[in-house]
Amino acid sequence: MPETPSIAAIEISHHRLPLDPPFRASWDGRPRTAFDATIVRVRDSEGRVGIGSGDLMLGFAGHEGLFLGQDPRAHDRHYEVLSHIAFHYGRCWPLDLALWDLAGKIAGAPVWRLLGGASGRVKLYASSGVLRSPQALADRAEQALAEGFAAMKIRFSSAGEGRGGWRADIAALEAVRARIGDRMALMVDCNQGWRMPWDTAAPWGFKDALEVARALEPLGIFWMEEPLHRADIAGMAALRAASPIRIAGGEMTREAAAFRQIVEARALDILQPDAALTEGITGLARVARMARAAGLGFTPHSWTNGIGVLANAHLLAGTGADLWLEFPHDPPEWSLERRDFPMAAPLAAAAGTLELGEAPGFGLALDEARLAATRIG
Question: Domain Mandelate racemase/muconate lactonizing enzyme C-terminal: where (predicted)?
Answer without folding.
Answer: 134-246
